[in-house]
Write a structure and sequence with these properties.
Blueprint (H helix, E strand, L loop, with lengths): L1 H20 L2 E2 L42 H4 L5 E5 L19 E6 L6 E7 L15 H10 L2 E4 L4 E2 L2 E2 H8 L7 E3 L9 E3 L9 E3 L1 H5 L14 E3 L6 E2 L2 E5 L7 E6 L4 E6 L6 E2 L10 E2 L1 E13 L2 E4 L18 E9 L2 E9 L7 E3 L7 E3 L3 E12 L16 E4 L1
Amino acid sequence: MKTRILLLALATALLLTAAALADTVIDGTGERNIYPGDTGLNLVEVGVSPTTGRTLSGLNAPDGASGLAVNGRYQPMLVQIDNTDNGVGYRAPWGAIWADVIFESPLRREGHTRITLLFSDIIPDDVGPVRSARIGHVWLREEWGAGFVYYGQQEYHATNVKDEIARLGADDAGVVFSGTLPAWSRYFYQRRNLKSPHDKGADVAGLQALIPEDYEVPNHAWLFTDEAAEGDSATVITVGWGRSDYRSVYTWSPSIGRYTRSVGDGSSQQIYHDLDTGEAITFANVIIQWVDMDWAQVTAPVMRIAGNAPFFVTWSDGPYIAQGNADFFMNGVHVAGYWRRDSMADRTVFYGPDGEEIQLQRGRTMVVMFPATERQLHEASNKAPTLLEIQRSVSYR
C-alpha cells in the first residue's frame, strides 16, 4: 500500500511539473473586459527618450549618426528591412542594433514576415538590407510622423503604397524616400558581398537631414517605469507564423534584464543579431499586437492598424476603429492588455488590464503585429495554403 501511495504521489508530482512547464496558448480574440480610459499625449521629459525611456546623455552613437541623443532633433525614421530566412546568418540586418522599436508584420499569407525598424535616439548612416513597403507600413509611418525609407513598393489594387502615400500627403511633406527613385539614389548603395535583393543599404542619417526642419512630428511618447511589472511568469515566448523557419522564441535573461530572440526550429535556431557588430538584438519589452488581417492576394497583406482605413472592405458597419487584444512581456512576466488607434492621425495606445495606458520598461521594444482574424478577399494561387491550413499561434511559459 505504501508503495502504491508513493507511486501515486510521484505520478501526481510529475503531472504537476509537466503542467507547470506546459505552454499557455494566448487567445487573441477572447473577451478581456478591458475598457480603455481616456488618454491624451504624454509629457516628454527633457533628456529622456520618448521611445525607449533611456537617459539620452548616457547613449554612445557611432560616427556619422544623427538622432535625438546626437543633435537633439526628434525626427523618427522608419526603415523597411529584409527578413528572408528570418533575418539570421548572412541575412541578418545591419544597423539594427541602434533601433528603438522593431516591428514584425505579415508579408506572405503562408507565414513569411517583414521587419520594420524605428530609429529615433540614434539614427545610423548605414542600415540594411532595405526592402519594399506594404500598405500597413504606410499607416505605421503616419502615426509616428517618421521619415520613411524603403526600396520599392506594392501597387496591387487595394494595397497600392504609392497611391496611399500620395493620398496622405507624405510625399509632398518630403518625408518619403524610395531607393528605386533617382532623386534619392545617392543615399542608397549595394554591399558587394551580398546577393540581390538582400544587398541594399541606406544612409538613414543623411536622409533624415533632408526632412524640412519645420515638419511637425506628432508626440508619440510612451510611458516608462523603473518598477518591475507584475504578472504571470513568462520566461519563454514562442511566436509561430505557420512556417517553422519563421518561428521566433524570446527567452528571458535575468542577467541582462532582456529578452533574447532566436529564430528557426529545433537545433537550427539562431540568435537574432546585428550583421556588422555581431551583437544580439535584445528587448526590454515584447508586445504582441493582435490585428485584423485582410489578404488581397497571397503577398498583399492589409493590417487593420488604423481607424477609418479607406478601403473597399470594412470589418463592421460605420466607422472602423482599430483595436484589439495586446499581450505584454516584461521582466520575465506576462500582462494581458488591449490596444486602440481611433484614426489615421492618432497614435496607437497600449492599455494594461486596468484600462490605463501601460508603462513599459526602459529599453528597446519589439512589437509583433500578429493576426487575430484573417480574411481572404480574392482567390490566391492554388499553390498557396488556405487560411484554415495555416497554423499560427503565440504561447509562453
